[in-house]
Amino acid sequence: MVRSWISLIICILFGLLAASIIYYKINVLNYPVTPETTVNSWYIELQGTLERGHKSKDASTFRLTLPEENEGYSVVSIQKIANGFGEDKQNKGRELLLTKRNPDSRESIYARFLIYGLDANQGAAPATDKTDYLKTRYTVENRISNPSPETQALYDTIDFVIDRADSRSSTPLSFLKEVQAILSEDTQKAAFLMDQMKAKDLAALMVILARVEGYESRAANGILLADEVRNADILRWVEIRSNDDSDDVWRRFFTDPELQGKSLQIYRWWTGNSPLYEIKNFKEARLNILVKGNQDGAFTRALWQAEEKQPLIYKFTLQTLPLDQQLVLQVLLLFPIGALLVSFLRQVVGVKTIGTFMPVLIAVAFRETGVFYGILFFGSLIAVGMVVRANLDRLRLLMVPRLSAILTVTILFIAAFMVLSKDMHLQLGLSVALFPVVIITMFIERVSTMWDESGGKEAMTASCGSMLIACIIYFILINPFIKHFVFTFPEILFLVFGLSLVLGRYNGYKLSEYKRFWALKRAIEKQQKG
Questions:
Q1: How far is the C-alpha of 497 from the C-alpha of 493, rounded, in Å?
Q2: In the 3-class helix/strand/coil scheme, how is 38-61 assigned residue by residue?
Q3: Using one digit for the tens of pLDDT, what is the confidence trace for 85-130?
Q4: Beta partners for residue 64, in sequence order
Q5: β-strand 60-65 against 73-81: which pairing, if any?
Q6: Which of 1, 117, 217, 404 is the Cys-Cys partner for 210 at CB 3.0 to 4.6 Å?
Q7: Which residue, 107, 115, 113, is CA-closest to 80?
Q8: Same domain, yes or no: 365 and 458
């Protein structure tokens, strides 16, 4: 009894501690309780690794193109870490040059940008003269008067492509579409033009051809904005508009057919044909780009306010961590809540499960597949695994080799399912591959053991209970409010810890047991009355 009171007191103390910190964050630092329904700002994070090359007298440099403000977005925050590097902004602040005389064998750089979405035409356009988008030496007035045969062939090819595309189009975008179609039909002409014009890619070539026709055009580079992207790709497209006052809006044209016609939220990082980064005296550079939607602009402002009022609290805020660590913690912080739910359902309700916290792991697996396909894959794999395990029992194998054999069969089944889904044109390959096969293997082993010891009915009941709890925890893991609240106020886990202590002291009847003893209770009451 004393231990129960001690557990209750500890729970109350931890609950008060959590409530105090959360109250301070909400009322003093203005931390938002709920996430915004729409995302209007994004974090873009760069994580780079530089491999040292041969020793040189010259300094090693890394040149990075910084994100630019444009018509749709504003860059409001830039953070960078490059220990030991000298920093210098060049090209009117559009490029960052990092320099180090004697770099280590492996150097790490880190940068994070916060960008805000703006209303149409609210942001600033690149400070480039309008005529710069028309400049090219291949227009008729800029051509050589007495060209060589090879140059004349180039001029003739340019005129052929432009005249044919112009006859089939009526707008700048339709012109680009026809140019791409012509170049796709005649790959020899496309290769010849790219070689003679020293065009970097198809987008650069189409920009030149559009300028020859008289359209303002430029090559643009950017990334797709989404809630969570761990390894974002740099996208490249052509922007075009009419050289008059009738249409002053830049139109976007993707050279990748898969992106054409789609409504995508894309941030234009920079314009032109320059690369994202350049290295000198480094052997290799590996750069990973992460994108994370900032679901609360108010929270960002609260962070800046916390940095000014309470630098210590700001220093220990999870939102200051690198994005990849944030994405991991957003899931890990929900584990204790899932574990508390499993404890409650097992200890108080009486739901049977396979393993203690196996439902939490299954719920994490469902994050990669979704509930429907997760249950489908899980059920199929369990059925196959049970058949294999039953046949392996005849060989009397030891546990570890038996687990290895089951794991091998599980992976082979997943590989076969991926091939089958491809032939059926189902986009399930990635989610199946990410399904934690080790979890499945251990689950199969535990179900088989329970089947042998307690019978098939108990094993199936526990399996269904595990799946039920896993589905409940899955919806907790993907709930935006819970994810936001726990990640913003991780102090809530103090209360979870206290509740776990109180729950651990509960030794009363489970809800499922009341039904079992109800008949006995009525019999005793009837006997007492009689």
A1: 6
A2: CCCEEEEEEEEEEEECCCCCCCEE
A3: 888 888 777 888 888 888 888 888 888 888 888 765 444 444 444 4
A4: 96, 277
A5: unpaired
A6: 217
A7: 113
A8: yes
Task: Give yes or no: residues 93 and 236 share one domain.
Answer: yes
Which residues lie below 8 Å from residue 274, measured CB to CB, with a gap of 6+?
65
Instruction: Please tell me whether residues 228 and 166 are part of one structural domain.
Output: no
Is the Cα torsion angle 469, 472, 478, 480 positive or negative in sign? Answer: negative
20 vs 142, which has greater pLDDT?
A: 20
Share of the chain above pLDDT 70, in %: 87
Do the domain assignments include residue 280? yes
More confident residue, 77 or 288: 288
Q: Are residues 117 and 148 in the same domain?
A: no
Strands ordered across the beta sheet of 277-280: 86-90, 95-100, 60-65, 277-280
Torsions phi, psi for 255 (to 5 deg): -75, -20
Predicted confidence (pLDDT) per residue in 457-513, tens digit: 888 888 888 888 989 988 988 888 888 889 888 999 999 999 999 888 888 778 877
Same domain, 482 and 383: yes
Mean pLDDT of 350-369: 79
Last residue of a domain, one of 167, 188, 208: 208
pLDDT at residue 6, rounded to an integer = 86
Q: What is d(CA 360, CA 331) in angstroms, rounded to the nearest whole number?
A: 11
Give the domain extent around 369.
329-488
SS3 label, residue 142: helix
Work out the widest C-alpha separation in the chain, in whole angstroms: 124
Same domain flag for 435 and 346: yes
Instruction: Supply the DSSP string of 70-128, one letter for each residue.
Output: -SSEEEEEEEEE-TT-EEEEETTTTEEEEEESS--SEEEEEEEEEEEE--TTTSPPPS-
What span, in angstroms and rounded, lies between the C-alpha atoms of 253 and 105? 42
- Which of helix, strand or coil describes residue 283? strand
Looking at the structure, tell me whether residues 451 and 363 fall in a common domain. yes
Residue 90 Ramachandran class (φ > 0 left, ψ -120 to 50 alpha, else beta): beta
Q: Same domain, yes or no, for 49 and 194?
A: no
